[in-house]
Amino acid sequence: MGSNPTLSAYRSAQISTEATGTSLSEMTGSVATMGAATKSDPRESIVKRHHPVGASTGYMQSLRGDWSAQVEEAWRVSSFAIELSALSEAELPSLAEYLRQTPSLPFRYVSIHGPSKGREMDEKQLVVSLARLSGLADGIVMHPDTMDELALYRPLGHKLLLENMDSRKPDGRTPDELHRAFAELPEAGFCFDIAHAWSIDPSMVVAGELLDSFRARLRHVHLSSLSDDLHHVSLTDEDEELFSPTLKRCLDVPWIFEAPPQTDSP
User: Fold this and answer.
1) Domains identified in the chain and CATH numbers
2) If pLDDT is split at 50, 70 and 90, which confidence band does 259 have?
């Protein structure tokens, strides 16, 4: 069996960062430049033209628990960005251990999605655990409907990113609901989940209102379609067309796939 060029490149990048001490923000700068140059064909879709993309490990259920394998899978999608997803609190300790052993990842932008399920930890202790990880990431994404005492999260400062919620959730869905959270957390950034906004209002008016209110805080986009029961699925062509005017307002931040991106047929 021949060698996998994607994994070889990934592992070479690992060796390079370990050997030279290159920081995350410095690594892959030339890769970013080359990627931008190859994604400028106006005939392509808006998603294919957008260079700063990445994958969330949250959709990699078959690799759950194996952070190295999840990182390799994300590298196959893009060398620019990754979101390390610890949606279940039980995943947080193994992620922390993995990052302690792997101090530099070969991505230009790294976010961590904090837990929204299986929450048993005292909220103060959760914030302490997330703060320890914040130095290894560009952002820590949290669901505002799971945050009982918002003020406890202030130590995360600008690293904290609040995500807008879907229609199943009791809070954090609309500008008014998020304004209350940002009032308690004035340094926090915004993670815009465009499919969640669609679930609130398929006309995408609410999506526009969210960007009107929080565009200055925007740090990255979550990109997918939603199933009938509002779970993330691969972005459809129809939704890409519907989302396109809204996505054009988000061209300067990474777009993180929350479901496997579509690939061209051979």
Assistant:
1) 43-257 (3.20.20.150)
2) very high
